Each structure stands twice: as C-alpha cells, then as structure tokens.
UniProtKB/TrEMBL annotation:
It comes from Actinomadura rubrobrunea. GO terms for molecular function: acyltransferase activity, transferring groups other than amino-acyl groups. Keywords: Membrane, Transmembrane, Transmembrane helix. Residues 457-466 have a biased composition (Basic and acidic residues). Residues 74-93 have a biased composition (Gly residues). Residues 53-62 have a biased composition (Low complexity). Residues 1-99, 432-466 are annotated as: Disordered. This is Acyltransferase 3 domain-containing protein. The keyword Nucleotide-binding does not apply. The keyword Cell cycle does not apply. Pfam families: Acyl_transf_3.
Length: 466
C-alpha cells in the first residue's frame, strides 16, 4: 500500500546571528544592542567633565576612545575560551569589560597638574633666579597644555540633555562652590573684604568659567571651515581693546585657539608624537624652552604669560603686541607637544591619579594662598635656592595627595555633585513624540509556515532599544 507523501514544512531561513563583540565579531549592526561598559568610578573627565576622558585603544588601531573587551579576541572573531565565556574573544554570553582609560593621557594630566602646583607655590619667590626662570617656563605652556587636552576630549560634545547636565554639574556648580569658598577664605585668612562675585572669577576659578563658555561654543567650531584660523583671529583682536575683567574675558578669548586646536586633533596625531624620534625632539625643545626662560626672565614682563591684559596695559602698540602674542602661541604650542612627547605611554604608579586632576587644581589654591596670607614667602630662608627646592618638594607632595581617593571621596559632593533632583524629567522640548515612544519599535511580522521552535521568532527578532 502506497502511503501519500507528507507535505514538508517550509524551510526556516533564519538569518545568521550578526557578528558582534558578544560573539567575537565586529561592531554590532545599527539598531542592535551594543555592549554597555560597567559604570566607571567618579572622575573629572567624564564627557561633561573639565579635562576629558581617555580609553585604552583596541589592538590594531590608534583610537583612544575604544571600548576594550576582556581577553584577546582572535582575528576574525573566534570562539570564547572554553569554560570562561567572558574571558576569551567573545562567544555567546561573553560579558564586556568596563571602558578602560588610556594611561598616556592620565599620565600627561598628572604631570601637568604638578607643574601647576609648583608654579603657584613659587610665585612669591621671584627674587631667586631659580624660581623666577622656572616660573616663566611653566607659565609659558602649562595652561595651554590642559586646554589642548580638554579640547581633544570635547570633540564629541553636543548640547544633548545628558552632556548639558554634566556641564552644569561638573563645571557650573564647582565654579559657584569654589568661587564662594575662595572668596570666603580670602576674607577669613587673608583678612580682606568679603566680596563674592560670579562675574569676576577669583584666582584659579577662571578656568571653570572659561571652560563653560568653550564647551558651549564647541558646535560652532565644528561647523565652520577654518576654525583654528578664526579662533586665532578672535584671540589676537581681543587684546587690542579693553573689555574689562568680567568673566576674565581676555583669557577666555585669548586662550581659545588652544581649545580649538584640541578639537581638531585626532588619535593618529598623538601617535606621531609617541615615536622615539619625537621624544628626542621633545627633550631638545623643553631644554631650549627652559634656557630661553632664564634668558628673558629679566627682560620681559611676567604679565605677558598670564594671557589676561590688553596691549594698552602692557605698554605696547597693537602691532608689537600682536606679534608678541603670536610668537608666544607658537612657543606654547611647541612646548605642549614637546611635553606630551616625553610623557610615559605605559601604566605607572601615578596613572590612576591622573583621573582626578580637577580635584588638585581646585583644592591646591588653599595651600598656595596660605603661603601668601601667612607671609611664608617673605621668610629669608625661603628666598634662597635651598628654600625654593624645599617648597618645590612640598608642592609635589601636595599635588599628589590631592589626587588620591580619600580626597576624592571627601570632596566629590562639590566637584561631581549628584543633582538629579535639579533637572526636569522632560528631556525634549517642543512638539513631537517623546524619546520613549521613539525607542519603541513595532514587532516584526511572523514568518509564514510552522515554526520549528517556540522561540524561533523571538530569537532573531530585532531587539527593542530602551
């Protein structure tokens, strides 16, 4: 007896799983889940933070903001290590590691902040040639260095709700807190009149005020054709007229080209200065800069290196002043990249401290102001070469301690406040669907024919990004 042929089920042409970091392949396709790094420890260089963040580049590429996953992924996206799904090159169920930091930039920021502390500590010892020459050398490039790094890590800044909130909490709020704190400290310890003015930054708080404005202007510089030339023109022209001391506007505009230069840099540019030959040139340039500082220390007014006075207050005409400013910017840029070329590339004992340089920057001023208020700079033994060396050693210790975790835990309320209560829940203003409704996607239609498994359609359906 012949049995009738049983109709076969339609073949299920399920698409092959997309190669993603979870299964050892490349980046996920648009619209699919990307691995989310574990939350990093609080630091001063989150996307809205003042000094930018640094991630370890993935193997084979120069990018400094790439998420690195655990283990060594075999070329071509191999399978996971046997018995350890999160330790190999991926595989199903592999868990991504947290976003790591590039030690190069953390090392650079830590060494740079030590220069800042040393410079402020020897500011009152200008009768000693050692202190005076070193002071001019440091002030030639230490703030341009920070500004270039800050601009580099502001390349992806936008006025999105999350980054705008970070700008407020990590820059705006610390500015208000420390402007008030330093003015009060000046009144209590310095015995001066109490004057709290958010329009006139006190001492080192000008950098937060400038950073707030620079970050807001980032989208503008990313749209125009010749951003560095335009910023340089604004900078040079700003010193031709009196603009007052409101917001320290001469520094804000005068140092703007360094921020725009940082915006224009790319990871491959830093690969150039990491070459061995670049390090040799860097040592030569730094040595030459230090020698030049000692040559001009008695011939040039120190007001030039503060970047805050117009030509009229410096006693020069606009042509001479413009040429001087342009020459100083060239020298500062050369010293910045020379310094970066000698920074260690590998992880060191101070690498982790480089993540908290904003704490040192804003807190060390209480120590340096104390040197002035108590008259320690006027002590005879301090105005000697051994005294200068001693104050430099103390400054290095203070700068290091202020980057440590205990200080960060005690002061994070002021530098990285959690202020979710201060922001509205509505992230998008105006008409149109909300972000939540936009994120929802319609369920894909079921394939015709019987399903071989109960979760076949769910397995390959497009995930909803929430």
């Amino acid at each position: 007896m012949t049995h009738p042929t049983r109709p076969s089920a339609a073949p299920q042409n399920d698409p092959a799983p997309t190669a993603t970091p979870e299964n050892g392949g490349g980046p996920p396709a648009p619209g699919r889940h990307e691995p989310v790094p574990a939350p990093a420890a609080p630091r001063d260089d989150t996307p809205g933070g003042p000094f930018g963040g640094a991630a370890v580049p993935a193997q084979g590429g120069p990018s400094s903001d790439t998420v690195v996953y655990s283990g060594k992924a075999p070329s071509g996206g191999g399978a996971a290590t046997k018995g350890k799904p999160g330790a190999g090159g991926g595989g199903k169920g592999a868990a991504p590691r947290r976003k790591e930091r590039d030690p190069f930039f953390d090392n650079a920021k830590f060494l740079a902040i030590l220069l800042v502390v040393v410079g402020h500590s020897i500011a009152g010892l200008m009768e000693v040639p050692l202190a005076k020459g070193l002071y001019i050398f440091i002030y030639m490039f230490h703030m341009p260095l920070f500004i270039v790094i800050t601009g580099y890590f502001s390349r992806h800044w936008s006025a999105s709700p999350g980054k705008a909130r970070k700008l407020i909490t990590n820059v705006g709020v610390p500015y208000v807190v420390f402007e008030t704190a330093y003015s009060t400290y000046d009144w209590l310890v310095g015995r001066n009149e109490l004057e709290i003015s958010l329009l006139k930054p006190y001492y080192l708080t000008w950098f937060l005020c400038a950073l707030f404005m620079w970050r807001l202007s980032t989208p503008v510089w990313q749209q125009i054709r010749w951003p560095l030339a335009v910023a340089l023109g604004f900078s040079l022209m700003s010193y031709m007229s009196e603009m007052g001391g409101t917001f320290n506007i001469h520094r804000v505009i005068g140092l703007l080209p360094f921020y725009v230069l940082g915006l224009m840099l790319r990871p491959e540019h830093f690969e150039i200065i990491k070459r061995p030959l670049s390090r040799v040139f860097g040592v030569v340039v730094l040595a030459g800069g230090l020698g030049c500082a000692y040559l001009v220390m008695n011939r040039m007014s120190r007001d030039w290196i503060y970047w805050k006075d117009p030509h009229s207050e410096l006693g020069v005409d606009n042509v001479t002043g413009t040429l001087m400013r342009l020459g100083m910017m060239v020298c500062a840029t050369a010293l910045v990249f020379a310094f970066l070329s000698v920074v260690p590339r590998r992880r060191t004992w101070f690498t982790k401290l480089g993540a908290y340089t904003l704490y040192t920057y804003l807190l060390h001023g209480f120590y340096t102001r104390l040197l002035k208020f108590l008259g320690w700079w006027d002590l005879p033994w301090m105005n000697t070469t051994p005294g200068v060396l001693a104050i430099i050693a103390i400054a290095l210790v203070v700068g290091t301690v202020l980057c440590t975790k205990p200080v960060v835990r005690c002061m994070s309320w002021a530098l990285e406040p959690k202020m979710t209560w201060a922001f509205t829940r509505f992230r998008h203003l105006g008409a149109g669907p909300s972000a939540k409704s936009k994120a929802k996607k319609p369920r894909p239609p079921q394939a015709s024919g019987p399903s071989t498994t109960a979760d076949s359609s769910a397995k390959h359906a497009e995930p909803v990004v929430r």
